[in-house]
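Quick note —
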Amino acid sequence: MTAVGRQRATRAAAAGPDMQPWRMLPSPALLIHTPARTRAGLLTDLQRAAGNAAVCRLLTEPHRQSPSVHGGGPSVSLHGDTTADYNGGISKWVPKSIKRATGCTECPDDDPCVHAVGTFSVAYHANVTITMPDVPDGLTECQQRRVRTFLRDVLTPHEREHARRFHTYDGTTTHRVDFTGCGMSALQEHLQSIHDTEEAARHSAADSLSAAIDPFNRPIDLDCQD
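Predicted structure written out below.
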């Protein structure tokens, strides 16, 4: 994402000898603020000099605001984009023992009470992509050097810090499971609950860590000479 804001100086072109008369007419705003008698005489003189059509265009032309002028030199603001694609976790269940058990209530016949002991692990990984902005067009060599220095020394480390924080999602967790419930379907639901709760927490924590270093707005001073 790149946002570029540059100030551009503007100037009026000088009137040449072949310029058509109506292009040198006074502005509508000037006529509006002219006293009535003076305005009537001025319009009569203009009609003689430039013609009725030119004066009509002058009076019907919409008023345009003058461009605003801001102090300071030109600058540009550039932003990188770092995103994370979380794998959601890859789980593995390693049973140590699964036995028929008692102590469950109202288990259906096809899901009898079982007691399961084992290890449940989940491997998490984030694929992180860093996209850096290009050097804007239309810059002098000196300005290009300043932009490249900013990209290398300021923005790239910032985006890499985003990546580092996203990668706090990575890792493998291990849970010892000692479960009693109605059959393997209940065991599966129990393991899935462990997985979903943990994944959501890791995902949210990594996102929050990354968001904590934004917004990051560092304008680049382009007021330099080659």
